[in-house]
Amino acid sequence: MDVKVNVNWMGQGFHMEAENETAGKIRIDGDRKIGGLEGGMSPMEMLLAGAAGCSAIDVISILEKQRQDLKDLSVEVIGDREKLKEGYSRYNSIHLHFVLSGELDEKKVARALELSITKYCSVSKALEKGSEITYDFTIKN
Q1: Domain residues for 76?
Q2: Which of 11, 25, 92, 105 is most buried when burial is the number of CB atoms within 10 A of its CB?
């Protein structure tokens, strides 16, 4: 299955807009230190957001199938970024902290997260080759 995304420069600095085939849009920008306008996420931040969004979709789907009463979900992602001597950066580690609320069985939440991170989330699976991925969660009632 082919996936197509177009990225268009907005005409100033490193400010760009990515658009998918269903007209979903995301703003991309470089850091102000390199001339960015800070009008969007950096490409490296988008990797973290992608991992969080992908896992969140999995977790919501799994918890719905388990008939759990999920009321709210947020994911905080922290990436330990290292600039390599070759000039590019990578994340040595990525940690996702899930905050969920609702009438939830802790064991079912733990299983949903495990399945997402280790089996279903394509973004996490792509990133795990170069980054250690860890996660934890908090349930608020």
Answers
A1: 43-140
A2: 105
Q: What is the pLDDT of residues 20-59, one digit of tens each?
A: 999 999 999 988 888 888 778 999 999 999 999 999 999 9
Q: How far, in Å, CA of 16 to CA of 13, rounded?
A: 9
Q: How many Å apart are CA 127 and CA 95, to the nearest integer?
A: 12
pLDDT of 83 > 90? The answer is: no
- The structural domain count of the chain equals 2
C-alpha to C-alpha distance for 59 and 123, rounded to whole angstroms: 14
Q: What is the pTM of this model?
A: 0.90
Q: Sign of the C-alpha dihedral, residues 97, 76, 21, 3? A: negative
Q: Check whether residue 116 and residue 99 sit in a common domain.
A: yes
| 3 state SS of 131 | coil
Count of alpha carbons within 13 angstroms of residue 68, beta-carbon side: 27
Whether 89 and 126 share a structural domain:
yes
Please name the amino acid found at residue 65: K
Residue 26 sits in the same domain as residue 72? no
